[in-house]
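Ex. 9. Protein: O-acyltransferase.
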Amino acid sequence: MFDQIPDPGVPPVLDIVVFLQLTTCLFHVMNCLLMSCLGGSDALRSGETLKCAGLGIIQDQGWEPVPQTIMLICHKLQESLLSSASGFKNYRGILNWCVVMLVLSNARLFLENLLRYGILVDPIQVVSLFLKDPYSWPAACLVIVSNVFILVALYTERKLAMGTFSEKLGLLIHIINLTVILCFPMLTVLMVPSVTPVGGAFALGSYTILFLKLYSYKDVNRWCRERLAGTLMSVALQWNLYYFVSAPTLCYELNFPRSQSVRMGFLLRRLFEMLLLTQLLVGLTQQWMVPIIQSSMKPLQDMDYSRMIERLLRLAVPNHFLWLIFFYWFFHSSMNFVAELLRFGDREFYRDWWNSESVTYFWQNWNIPVHKWCIRHFYKPLLRKGASKLLSQSAVFFASAFFHEYLVSVPLRMFRLWAFMGMMAQLPLAWFVGRFLRGNYGNAAVWLSLIIGQPIAVLMYVHDYYVINHLEEAADPGAL
Ligand SMILES: CC(C)(COP(=O)(O)OP(=O)(O)OC[C@H]1O[C@@H](n2cnc3c(N)ncnc32)[C@H](O)[C@@H]1OP(=O)(O)O)[C@@H](O)C(=O)NCCC(=O)NCCS
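Predicted structure tokens for O-acyltransferase:
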């Protein structure tokens, strides 16, 4: 160790280097000044300024340059990069920094979670979420039964096309069919005890999609009969209804745009994403969400507001991650997978909702199939009937709120209206953000409403479900 310490008798190398640099610099300064005094030199070229690190500015005097000359001028009129006046916009590095910080802070959370709870991921538990009894599959049976309603719609349209049914009779059958589509699964889920909440939500989701599709099917066939009178037979006799029911769209069309072939690479990539993200969704829910929700029950019961807010903020992070993963899994991987398989050409399932600077923009762009359906079959028909824009928008949000509540309350077998109110709250929120916030502030407000709004609803439903199903059972042992 000590052998490596330099002998103090020898002049330090650093001093010599500094001395040489200073001498060279001084020489260049004197050289430049001398030439400027003499008035004729090749050091400077006309119309230019020269730079020399740390030595000041000499303006051009019409001199010619010497290639080896060190530049003398190092300052110019300029703003600091972080001042808005600089016009600097490249913050790519800052974005990377955010990602690194995000990964690091979440790695810490991940470790903390593992140390506190151990591994909670349990694939068997997932199966039990769908099935109470392995020999009874009520949700799957419900989905299979939905074929009856598809066939009723097809039969009605064929009869309408052939002129056997009058328009009024056809409309009546469609209305009854659509009403039963909403009521039948609801009653089944409420009355059959073996339907689990997750199984019920899956079945009701399928029926809701079918309701929207058959509503569109009815409307488009009627429009065709009105406008394409000569070709109406061929329209309704087509058996493309099952293609439409399977395709990733809610809006019916006689001829969907089709891609030329199935790209196997694309298909397999989407399939891989679907499988991977399903595991991730299940794993993160069990390992991250469930413990936080469980630990939030007591503060909620005690109405301990500071702890409630702390749990809400803790829940906001995993909930938001899961929502983002779900978005990619559903709107990109799954829909593209089905579309590729069916050679369905229109792949616009979402637009750039993440850039939303207003709540309105978010709802126009995040779920394109639903938005398209709302515009085509509900919003525009209302406007055409003379309803005002505000009334039509409110009606759309009301219908959307109804379906959100339907999909949550019925499977949980409790009616609390949190989802309904969350959806209806979008109207005043849209007004507020549109009126008072612009640009990045508007974008931040949209993100905040997504990050905070959803966990509030999740906590409310879970708390109420817990109180109804566990506390009441514990209070009444005879009920068990
Ligand atoms: C309510 C909702 C439909 C409003 O949509 P919007 O795009 O803001 O509505 P706009 O007023 O801008 O107009 C939409 C269309 O109607 C047309 N329109 C507007 N006023 C019109 C009028 N008086 N007469 C005829 N057409 C009119 C516009 O030209 C536009 O047509 P385009 O789509 O062909 O360009 C939309 O916010 C929505 O879909 N909300 C619900 C979303 C939802 O619940 N999603 C669930 C996801 S889980």
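Check your answer against this statement. The chain is about 70% helix and 0% strand.
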